[in-house]
Amino acid sequence: MNKTPNANRKHIVIYGKTNAGKSSVINALLDQSVSLVSNEEGTTTDPVLKATELIPVGPVLFVDTAGLGDNSNLGGIREKRTLEILHRTDIAIYIMDINDMDLDYYNKMKAKFISLDIPCILVINKIDSVDDEVVKEIKNKYKEPKLISTYTGEGIEELREEIIANMMDKEDDEVSLLAGLVPEGGTIIMVVPVDSEAPKGRLILPQVQCIRDALDNGIKSYVVRDSELESAIKDITNVDLVITDSQAFAKVSDIVPKEIKLTSFSILFARQKGDIKSYIEGTKAIKNLHKNSKILICESCTHNISHEDIGRVKIPKLLNNFIGGKLHYDISIFHDFPENIEEYDLIIHCGGCMINRKTILNRIKRCNRENVPITNYGLILAYLTGILDRSIEIFK
User: Fold this and answer.
1) End of a domain among 218, 246, 268?
2) d(CA 144, CA 217)
């Protein structure tokens, strides 16, 4: 559980005005001191992340945000960072102080939750600080909120159960990398080139997750280098699918017989983390690119840049050759995603193994809304090497 990447955990985010008791709530839910608690406003300055297991849901990520409505000198910056978390929120918990029932502020946030399809649980905290009659009046007036006290512990278990119920309702959102594509008992070969981009002594996250997904779904998996692929195909009978690193697409396609299906790790992640139909549609924009076109490359992780880097070197080189001129490229990293996406003729996203699905889906929805084509590394490399149809055949 502790080794589950944060990108594969549902993000449960705590929102609310300053001093509403957000940090106290997350500490009470986890029964441990995760966030610093103080009566001073603005104690939480940056989002605090806590990876944990929520039984029976499984691995989740709690995020404690800086308070809204902070009037300090840094309040505006803190609030901006808090609102940026909206795009990766799977479930929102909005904390309200029973002594500061600011429903106007809550309703503004609720509108944002609804626009981003984020389920929200309203929590009224500090019920121990008022008379029983006040609590009774609020219970009669409002049917929606959970009333709690982090001081006495009242209502905490009920809140935890409500969170679990919401998480279980969203279980259908989970997409397996391989289930539905390869039958139980089937066989896959994973092609992992070992070059300067390959981390010494270990596999990269998409390869590890693919192996794990194969184990979870009863699929036999074999891992080989591209140099051993041809002999592996001769040794292994009834191969259902070959999965390759995108940079070896052309070479692997020449080796793998046409009757064996072929795709890439990045394309599998396009299906699991994003919307593969939108990505496939986005590849059509390549035909309309010209020398003055602007391209945005979205990376979800920081890494050393080498002469074999896919996003910054290989894809631009292939695109420039395809267009017959040098295009303009911008790079966005991790959770940075520009406001001015309408300036771009095409957005090319990585597989997204280091950010959660909610983040990528919100980016795709925004691109679709603003008519900006978006695709991903694996699909554009398949297109530029002339094997797009073959690489997506398995999804039909």
Assistant:
1) 268
2) 40
